[in-house]
Request: fold
Amino acid sequence: MQILAHSVVPPNPVPYLHLGYISAGANARTTQAPGYLFIASGIVLSALLGVILIRKGISPATRRVGLALLLVSILVFTLSQIPWPSRYAHPEEASQDHAWKVYKRIAVTRKPGDPIPSDLQALSKIFPYTKDGWNREMHIATYQAKGKEAYAIISAGQDGQFGTGDDIAVIEGSLSHYPGKRRANLVLQELTDSIEKEK
Amino acid sequence: MALFTKAHSWRLTPPDLVEERDELVLLVWGDLPYWSVVDREFHALLCALDGRGLDQVLSEQPAWRAQRREIETQLEVLRKAGVFGTPEEKTPAPPLYGTKIENIAINLTRRCNLRCKFCYNLPYLTKDDTGEVSAEEIGGYLRILKPFQAKHPTFTVLGGEPLLEADKLLAACEMAIRQGCTALVSTNGTQVTDDFARQAAKLGLQVQVSLDGHTAKLNDAVRGKGSFDGTVAGIRRLVAHKAYTIISQVCHRGNLPHLGAYYRFGQTLGVNEVRFIPLKCLGGATTGEFAAIPLDDLLQHAFTLFKSHPEFLPLTGRDAFSILATTCRFSSRRPSCGTGLQTVLLDADGTLYPCLNTNHPAFRIANIREPGFDFKRTWLESPVLTDLRRRTVLFNPSKHAGCPVRYWCLGGCRGENHAVTGDAGKPSPDCTSLRRGILEMFWMLAERPDLAKPAVKIC
Reply:
């Protein structure tokens, strides 16, 4: 039981800037309008509230308005904490990325000898990527490849229907699985054939 | 609380690539980047951890419990590498700016006495001096470059044939060496005189002689009839005067089977290094007369050679095998291959290009002879550089993201990518074999780490 070889951090590492990692799909979330609206509203309301409550000698009616604004602020803040469904500028890429993440998650966490899970329900409770770029649950499908049990993570694609041409699937093509080959538009019954052809 | 922390810390970030071979498993994390070759049992342990505490896992496996200390040591290696954590955590991208210039290249002249078939500069060679930069101009250029250069950069002189301007070459190298550079000239060797060899040795100039085979037949097929004898005579002069001498061969299908004989010939000549690099589809090589070798084939060939002939290892250092081995040994997140960031080329007419292999009108940055030329502004604001840097960064979402070996492959040669696809930012046309070659190198390093010598820094 050992590590035979591994890479090492070079003795003089290059200093990094924190630009934020941009990966295809995962950070393609560009539609943030509701979130920005809440934040902007919160800032405006808080500013108004501050002005109203700080001023001395204000009338009870104005105070009531201030109180109402405070309540609205609390409401806005509460709403902003709700995890709204993510929307992606490129849902195909996001789906591909999420499917790959799920695939890897299962590959790494599955113990030797354990069966392949029949659905992603259990995983969806602890792993945030079980939905595709259109916020629809993805499926897991098992098949035989070269006598071994293998699995695919499938998004229904833009049309939302499984088994159609725009499905996005992550499959294991061989023992090596490269992200460059991770996407396939396919019909499940032909999956094994596709793998054989690719090889 | 401590229990929670421990359990959390052993959650393995899913590797981007898992490859099994015999009883071993290769795991690659592309974002870190980090790779590791472990045995199957250790892989099973990693899978079993899954965020649980080590105690819990060991309690289920009595055989593992007995090896607790070893396991903890090994897990610590992985923990330091950063492979334990939540998969949602994003690794910050490496910096695009702030890196220093590591390689200063100069095409000293566009004239050459040979017309080698796959010369990288073949389309731009001339017969006459067309107003080439003088030693003084090079000196001025080096001075303005100084604030941007790394502590010990490489100063590489190419051409044309630089030894057609031996005095200018020596003067330029002397200035560069004084400025902290390691100077290297790439020559065809036919113009080496005793006087030059003596001065090169005195100056500490490294002389890389292009010799494309250990026989006249192999070499002259590329470099022209009669060139072999002239080149070998030049090499002997350099060796006789104790100048640091490297012979360099561009490998293609025709001469790869003779790589062993080439090393043997290098031993016979008494050179300091023997170098081989793969043929790139650049310059004269775009005609396709010589067939390029997939990188994985080249590496396998070299690996087999070095395993059976360890006596060749002292001659290695900046060959394709050693360079890639050193690259793969490290977990380093470079922002790009370095073109136009860590490299710059001054062409013979004073034009600046991002690197040796992007010596093409599309990448013309500026000319040092232009009135009011300001290197700082050019380096920081040139639209050509800005665009090239933007298109070649490894975290470019549309290009390489997701590739598990991108921080080792660095997108291949950007000049070659441009020559073949018309877009330097596109993945290498030989992407598949690059990727396979890098993965093979991981396996090779696991099998025989002693074969990989630290590479000498060179463009």
In short: The longest strand of chain B covers residues 149-158. The first helix of chain B runs from residue 2 to 9.
